[in-house]
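Input (Enoyl-CoA hydratase/isomerase):
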Amino acid sequence: MSTEAEYVRIDDGVLEITLSTAAKGTSLDFAGVAAGTAALAELGADIGAVLLTGAGPNFCAGGDIRDFAAAQDRSAHLYQLADTLHIFVRALDSAPVPVVAAVHGWAAGAGMSLVCAADIAVGGPGTRLRPAYPGVGLSPDGGMSWTLPRLVGAAKAREILLTDAVLDAAEAQRLGILARLTENDEAVLDNARALARTLARGPRASYTSIRALLSRSATATLGEQLDAERDAIGAAAGSPTGREGVDAFLAKRAPDYSGLN
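Output:
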């Protein structure tokens, strides 16, 4: 029987969530989704970043199609699974810390949706992304129909989704879905972990403000966004994090944000 500890670990200020396992054929493991949602709901001041990973040859190969087919009521089953996944995606979106994804191998279906939900996705030469929904006669979930157009543009998102396009690592980086590529696939997880740990040691209050500003920019007018930026930077300047950052710059030393977040 699986335990929550198999899916969630905390190390050096990083909450690491495993979303797929080799035992599940690297399909989306809902025990990991549930454990991740619970951990995000209890996010403490000791956590400065979230890292999404997969255990096995792929980041996440999408939903378990055999499980879908075996359901007595497929419609009700898929509705419930999507609802559970969306609770997790909402928790990621509302987290006050950066979200990093270590994308090795395939990220298909819901796996690709979760890559698109991350702030920074790290891949390798062998990384492949595919919507996969049209291939089994389904429509997207996990927020892909919202995040993908904002990453690649509306026209390209239509083309990718409607043609069920397979994106190699270079194309995914060119389009902005993957932010970084490692030299080899074996380095993806270590690179993503190092990035998450670096972010966890950074100015968390600043990251929280940046994520909030970026989130609201999708629907705000320029005037509204300018007001929000003014309010945020004014508040940051008087905060312990902002004071330390400015004082460290003037003193020509590295800022120390420990104990301030």
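The chain has two domains: 4-200, 204-250.
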